[in-house]
C-alpha cells in the first residue's frame, strides 16, 4: 500500500515479506546491502486459514484466532521496521472472504503494518519472480507451478519475464475440504478429485501447450513435500514424475485414510498432502508433463525482490501504468503535462501536509497518467469509466488497496467531489485528489501561451493558490473553473482561496 505520510518514511537496510496463504503463513527477513539480498530469518506456521472459510464466505472464529495469534508472533519481529521495508500480502482465502475489513484491521494492529490483498494474477507474477531469482538464468521457456492451499498458479515465462499467467481455483486445502474432509480415501473419491482438477485446467491448458516449454519447475509446500517423499522412498533424487504420484496415491488407497504414514512426509503437511497430490496429478495429466523439479523460492522471495526493486526505483508498477495508458490510447503529452503540474504543486505543500516525497509522488503521478483512460469508452462521465477500469484491471505490481487508491483519485479529479464513494477519512488521499483536480483544471483546454508561475500554500484545510493577475485576466475560463472549484472543495470542508499578485 502507498505510504503517504512523511511521519513513517524512515529508511532501513532490512526488509521483510509475509505471505498469508490459505495453508501456511510465512515470514522472511533479509538484509539489503550493496545491491544484494542476504536472507536472515524464516518463520512458517501452518495456520490452515482455508479450512476456516465457511459456506457464507466468512471466516470461522477458530481460524481467525489461529491467524491473529500467529500474526501477533510475527509482529514481535517487525517492531521498528518502517512501512516501506515491509510487504504483507494475503492470497486466495483472504481474496474470497466476504468482508475482510475487520480481520485486516485486527491483523494490522498485531503486525504494525498493513496487509494487502493481491489478485491471482499478481500472486502468479510474484511466484515467478521468486523462482526466476532462485534458478540459473537461461533463455529457454519454462513453466512454473505453485500449489497453494486455495489456488494453484501456473506461469509460463522466459528468463525474468512471465508471459502467460493463470490462477486456478484448486489447492491442497480446497481439494481436501471437498473430497477428503471425513478422512476417508477411496477409488471413487480419488477419481472425483482428479476430474474436478482437470475441469479447472480444461479452459487454459491448450494455450500453455501451444506455447511450449523446455523446463518444468514446481514451487512452495505441496510440491516440495512431494519431492521429499520421492527422495525419501528412493524413487528419484527428488525429481517428480507421474509414476511417483501414482505410487503415492496407491499408498493412500491401500491405507484407506488421509493419515497414511509416508516416508519423507512431515506431520504438519500430512492433513493436506493428498489434496496437493491430486492437484499435481491433474497438472501432469492435463499439461502432459514428464517430470518436474522443485525450487526453493516462491511467493515470499518474489515479494522481497519486488520490494527491493521498489526501493531501488525499478518499480514494475510504473511500467504497468504506462502499459494501461497506452492500451486505452491516453493522450500522453497531456497526461505528462498534468503530472508535471500536479507534482509541482505537491512539492510546494508536501512539508506542511506531511506527505512523503516518494509514495505520494508516485500515486499522484500515476493517477495523472490514468485519469483519461475512460475517454476510450465514452466522453460523458469518463472519470467514472476511468475509475472502474483502474479499479478492476490487472495492474502488475499493484495490490487491491493500491488500485483502490488510484481509482479514488481518478474518480475525484473532476466535477463535484465524490464524497459518498471517496474515503474522506484518509486526509492524505483527499489532499492528493485536490492537487490532481487543480492540475487538471490548468490543462483542461489548450493554453497556447503556457502556464504561469503557480504558487500554492497549504495549512491544514486552508489552501491558497496564487497566480499572476494579468494571466488570470487573460484566461477567464480557467478563472471560472477555479472559482467553481472553491465551491466544490468547500463541500468537503476545505477553504480554497484564489489570490493574484
Automatic annotation (TrEMBL):
Source organism, top-level taxon: Bacteria
Keywords: Hydrolase
Entry-linked InterPro entries: ATPase_NBD, GppA/Ppx_hydrolase, Ppx_GppA_C, Ppx_GppA_N, PyroPPase_GppA_Ppx
CDD domains found in the cross-reference section: ASKHA_NBD_EcPPX-GppA-like (cd24053)
Bilayer-spanning residue ranges: none
GO molecular-function term, one example from the UniProt record: exopolyphosphatase activity
Every Ppx/GppA phosphatase C-terminal domain range: 316-486
Domain Ppx/GppA phosphatase N-terminal: 28-307
EC number, as in UniProt: 3.6.1.11, 3.6.1.40
Entry-linked Gene3D superfamilies: 3.30.420.40, Exopolyphosphatase. Domain 2, Hypothetical protein af1432
Name by which UniProt lists this protein: Exopolyphosphatase/guanosine-5'-triphosphate, 3'-diphosphate pyrophosphatase
Amino acid at each position: 500500500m502507498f505510504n503517504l505520510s512523511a511521519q513513517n518514511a524512515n529508511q532501513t537496510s532490512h526488509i521483510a515479506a509475509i505471505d498469508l496463504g490459505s495453508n501456511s503463513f510465512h515470514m522472511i527477513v533479509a538484509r539489503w546491502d550493496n545491491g544484494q539480498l542476504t536472507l536472515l530469518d524464516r518463520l512458517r506456521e501452518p495456520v490452515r486459514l482455508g479450512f476456516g472459510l465457511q459456506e457464507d464466505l466468512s471466516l470461522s472464529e477458530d481460524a481467525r484466532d489461529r491467524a491473529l495469534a500467529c500474526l501477533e508472533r510475527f509482529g514481535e519481529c517487525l517492531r521498528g521496521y518502517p512501512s516501506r521495508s515491509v510487504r504483507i500480502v494475503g492470497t486466495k482465502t483472504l481474496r474470497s472472504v466476504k468482508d475482510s475489513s475487520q480481520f485486516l484491521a485486527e491483523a494490522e494492529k498485531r503486525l504494525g503494518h498493513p496487509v494487502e490483498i493481491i489478485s491471482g494474477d499478481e500472486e502468479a507474477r510474484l511466484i515467478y519472480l521468486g523462482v526466476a531469482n532462485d534458478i540459473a538464468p537461461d533463455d529457454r521457456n519454462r513453466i512454473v507451478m505453485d500449489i497453494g492451499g486455495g489456488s494453484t498458479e501456473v506461469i509460463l515465462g522466459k528468463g525474468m519475464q512471465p508471459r502467460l499467467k493463470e490462477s486456478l481455483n484448486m489447492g491442497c486445502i480446497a481439494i481436501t475440504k471437498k473430497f477428503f474432509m471425513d478422512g476417508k480415501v477411496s477409488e471413487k473419491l480419488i477419481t472425483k478429485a482428479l476430474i474436478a482438477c482437470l475441469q479447472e485446467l480444461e479452459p487454459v491448458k491448450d494455450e500453455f501447450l501451444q506455447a511450449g516449454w523446455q523446463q518444468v519447475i514446481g514451487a512452495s509446500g505441496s510440491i516440495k513435500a512431494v519431492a521429499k517423499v520421492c527422495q525419501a522412498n528412493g524413487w528419484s533424487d527428488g525429481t517428480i514424475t507421474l509414476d511417483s504420484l501414482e505410487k503415492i496415491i496407491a499408498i493412500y488407497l491401500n491405507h484407506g485414510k488421509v493419515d497414511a504414514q509416508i516416508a519423507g512426509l512431515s506431520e504438519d503437511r500430512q492433513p493436506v498432502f493428498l489434496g496437493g497430490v491430486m492437484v499435481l496429478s491433474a497438472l501432469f495429466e492435463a499439461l502432459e508433463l514428464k517430470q518436474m523439479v522443485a525450487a526453493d523460492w516462491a511467493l515470499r522471495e518474489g515479494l522481497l525482490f519486488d520490494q527491493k526493486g521498489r526501493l531501488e526505483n525499478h518499480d514494475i508498477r510504473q511500467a504497468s501504468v504506462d502499459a494501461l495508458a497506452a492500451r486505452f490510447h491516453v493522450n500522453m503529452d497531456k497526461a505528462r503535462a498534468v503530472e508535471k503540474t500536479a507534482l509541482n504543486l505537491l512539492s510546494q505543500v508536501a512539508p506542511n501536509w506531511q506527505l512523503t516525497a516518494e509514495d505520494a509522488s508516485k500515486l499522484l503521478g500515476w493517477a495523472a497518467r490514468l485519469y483519461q483512460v475512460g475517454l476510450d469508452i465514452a466522453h460523458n462521465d469518463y472519470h467514472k469509466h476511468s475509475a472502474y477500469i483502474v479499479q478492476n484491471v490487472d495492474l502488475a505490481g499493484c495490490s487491491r488497496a493500491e488500485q483502490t487508491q488510484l481509482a479514488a483519485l481518478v474518480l475525484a479529479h473532476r466535477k463535484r467531489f465524490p464524497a459518498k464513494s471517496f474515503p474522506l477519512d484518509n486526509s492524505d488521499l483527499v489532499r492528493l485528489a485536490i492537487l490532481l483536480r487543480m492540475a487538471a483544471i490548468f490543462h483542461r483546454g489548450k493554453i497556447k501561451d503556457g502556464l504561469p508561475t503557480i504558487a500554492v500554500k497549504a495549512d491544514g484545510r486552508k489552501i491558497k493558490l496564487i497566480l499572476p493577475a494579468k494571466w488570470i485576466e487573460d484566461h477567464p475560463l480557467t478563472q471560472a473553473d477555479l472559482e467553481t472549484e472553491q465551491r466544490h472543495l468547500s463541500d468537503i470542508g476545505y477553504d480554497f482561496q484564489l489570490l493574484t499578485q
